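Example 9 (inverse folding). The structure is encoded as follows.
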């Protein structure tokens, strides 16, 4: 280790010592208040001379401890210095998260895609020539780059993390321990993992401290300053949200956590509303992981709930003028919009969109006539049963009931035809029956969603869906005299006769097995059925495209 490297390590150790010293419960808040100007001056001086992401993480964590443990400065000059320091450190961290490396990808804002950087297309086995960029204040203001690194295997940020700080107690921001590994140990780590460490580390610190900076450092009259700060930061964070590759899952998770926390602040709405709306309408929106569904539900609820015009603008995008004249691509796009409508309603509170139910019903009625959009229409109705009051459901109930009965009767008819074909086919001619095409994949998707809709209706408490009691006998396994007369019983009996191994193609056979499973669940003892909360959990999986 040469003198330059040794000096850098000593600097990191000193910063880490200061961070722990200020975080200690033995340090009173009064002392921190007295030292406020001096600490801010120290942090700004360090920012000018220390450019490594790990050092910026430590400086930001030190500032976070100061902000959360000491009361906000009353002096206008000190307050202005605090806001300037927050801006410099946080934007530097966001740039560290999106910095171009020798293995980097350049982010194209207009097309929402990343492409290999023309100056960095060399062998991945060679060591990076300059993996870290200097972050001077002038560079932050004049030439922010919007790039992202190559898809790489994530590794934990060095030093782990500590619990976030509360204003009154001595809780801490994520700590960043200085690296002490030798050069030989560093060489044993793959280059792509070394390059990804600063990104993960910077995003982790930002996701833990930024919301508290917004809450404590700015008041309600400083909206422009908040928007300026968050816009500069999110400019470098969005590429990670568009990257759904498993290798970059840690970057995605930290970026999502950061965005989720920011959407809780109405004052910050202008900084994230436009980009979030674009992302919501992006074709890959539902490529999210199961673990991130709850975060996106929170984000979309905050997007739609805090402004009445946002929901109206979204509904205006659903324009199914004439389904018969639409191309397959247009129908698929319309189905995607209906899936997003279901997601919006699912994200909202109970009866939150009661004022929009007439517009929603009009859109759904216009989309019933196509097999491509009908599954999403049924999904919307299933979500609406869970999110609207009995009084509001009176509007959609005639359509829900009639469509459910109609679709299940079509399923029964298709199963009867399939059972007949398999029955008359001789054992020597079994290959002939394997070529029988059971309806279509789109039709089977309609059957599957209709069965899920019926399952939800059966699970609804009587007081939540009193209208269903008049048609319940259509779906129960028996009637009062004990005879099996319901549509569901006819369907399950036919499923018991059908050899599923003879169904082609495989995608169609898979959907049919799902239908058989849900039908068997419906026709079992209702005491063994899932609760509504379990149905809501299964709905989260329904939205995913992975």
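The amino acid assigned to each position is listed next.
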């Amino acid at each position: 280790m040469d003198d330059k490297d040794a000096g850098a390590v000593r600097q990191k150790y000193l910063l880490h010592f200061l961070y722990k010293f200020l975080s200690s419960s033995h340090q009173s808040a009064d002392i921190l208040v007295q030292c406020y100007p001096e600490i801010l001056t120290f942090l700004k001086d360090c920012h000018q001379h220390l450019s490594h992401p790990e050092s910026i993480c430590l400086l930001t964590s030190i500032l976070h401890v100061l902000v959360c443990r000491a009361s906000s400065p009353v002096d206008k000059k000190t307050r202005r210095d605090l806001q300037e320091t927050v801006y410099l450190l946080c934007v530097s961290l966001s740039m560290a998260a999106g910095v171009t490396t020798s293995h980097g990808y350049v982010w194209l804002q207009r097309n929402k895609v990343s492409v290999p950087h023309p100056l960095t297309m060399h062998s991945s086995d060679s060591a990076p020539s300059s993996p870290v960029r200097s972050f001077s204040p002038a560079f932050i203001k004049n030439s922010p780059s919007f790039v992202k690194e190559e898809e790489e295997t994530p590794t934990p940020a060095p030093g782990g993390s500590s619990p976030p700080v509360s204003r009154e107690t001595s809780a801490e921001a994520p700590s960043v321990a200085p690296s002490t590994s030798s050069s030989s140990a560093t060489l044993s780590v793959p280059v792509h993992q070394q390059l990804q460490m600063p990104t993960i580390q910077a995003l982790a610190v930002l996701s833990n401290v930024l919301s508290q900076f917004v809450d404590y450092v700015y008041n309600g009259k400083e909206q422009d300053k908040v928007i300026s700060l968050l816009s500069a930061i999110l400019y470098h964070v969005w590429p990670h949200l568009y990257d759904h590759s498993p290798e970059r899952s840690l970057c995605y998770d930290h970026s999502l956590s950061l965005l989720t926390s920011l959407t809780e602040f109405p004052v910050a709405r202008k900084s994230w509303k436009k980009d979030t709306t674009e992302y919501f309408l992006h074709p890959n929106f539902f490529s999210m992981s199961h673990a991130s569904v709850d975060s996106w539900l929170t984000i979309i609820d905050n997007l739609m709930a805090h402004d009445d015009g946002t929901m109206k603008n979204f509904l205006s995008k659903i324009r199914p003028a004439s389904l018969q004249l639409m191309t397959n691509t247009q129908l698929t796009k319309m189905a995607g919009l209906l899936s997003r409508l279901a997601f919006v309603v699912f994200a909202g509170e109970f009866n939150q969109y009661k004022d929009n139910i007439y517009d929603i019903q009009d859109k759904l009625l216009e989309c019933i006539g196509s097999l491509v959009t009908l599954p999403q229409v049924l999904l919307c109705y299933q979500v609406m049963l869970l999110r609207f009051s009995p009084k509001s459901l009176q509007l959609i109930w005639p359509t829900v009931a009639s469509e459910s009965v109609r679709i299940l009767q079509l399923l029964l008819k298709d199963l009867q035809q399939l059972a007949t074909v398999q029955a008359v086919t001789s054992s020597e001619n079994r290959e002939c029956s394997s070529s029988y095409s059971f309806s279509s994949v789109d039709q089977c998707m309609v059957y599957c969603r209709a069965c899920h809709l019926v399952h939800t209706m059966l699970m609804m408490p009587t007081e939540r869906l009193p209208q269903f009691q008049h048609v319940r006998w259509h779906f129960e396994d028996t009637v009062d005299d004990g005879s099996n007369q319901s549509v569901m019983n006819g369907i399950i009996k036919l499923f018991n006769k059908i050899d599923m191994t003879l169904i082609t193609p495989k995608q169609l056979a898979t959907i049919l097995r799902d239908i058989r499973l849900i039908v068997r669940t419906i026709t079992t003892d209702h005491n063994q059925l899932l609760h509504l909360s379990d149905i809501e959990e299964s709905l989260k999986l329904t939205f995913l495209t992975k």
